[in-house]
Write a structure and sequence with these properties.
By secondary structure, the protein is an all-alpha fold. It has one domain. The chain is built from 6 helices and no strands. The protein is globular. It starts with 10 loop residues before the first helix and ends with a helix.
Length: about 110
C-alpha cells in the first residue's frame, strides 16, 4: 500500500487525479487523507482502537511516522485499512491468510 506517498485510493488522491469529485471524507470533518483516516476520522473509531491496541502490544507508538515507517507496524496498519472497508479493492480479503491475526484477535 502506498500510505507513505498518499498515492492510494483515498478521497484526497482520487480527487487530485480527477477520479472523484471531492477530497472530503464521508465524515465531513476533513479531506480523506492517510493521516485523517489513520488518526482522526470518527467513522473508524472501533477499528482504530483495535489497531492502537495491536500496536501497543508490539511496543509501537501511535504516531503517524511510526505507523508509516516501522516495518513491524505494516501488517497492523494494513489490517486497519482492510477493516475500514475504505479501500474497496480489499473488501473480502482474508486477513488471516495475510498474517494479520493480531488485528483480528482484538475484534
Amino acid at each position: 500500500m502506498q500510505l507513505r506517498t498518499g498515492r492510494i485510493g483515498l478521497g484526497a488522491y482520487l480527487a487530485r487525479i480527477n477520479r472523484r469529485d471531492s477530497a472530503r471524507c464521508d465524515c465531513d470533518l476533513g479531506n480523506q487523507t492517510v493521516a485523517h483516516v489513520l488518526l482522526e476520522c470518527p467513522l473508524h473509531i472501533e477499528e482504530r482502537v483495535r489497531m492502537r491496541n495491536a500496536l501497543s502490544g508490539q511496543g509501537i507508538s501511535f504516531r503517524r511516522d511510526d505507523l508509516l515507517t516501522r516495518p513491524e507496524a505494516r501488517e497492523i496498519v494494513a489490517g486497519f485499512m482492510v477493516e475500514t472497508g475504505i479501500l474497496t479493492q480489499f473488501l473480502g480479503t482474508d486477513t488471516a491468510a495475510l498474517g494479520m491475526e493480531a488485528v483480528e484477535e482484538k475484534s
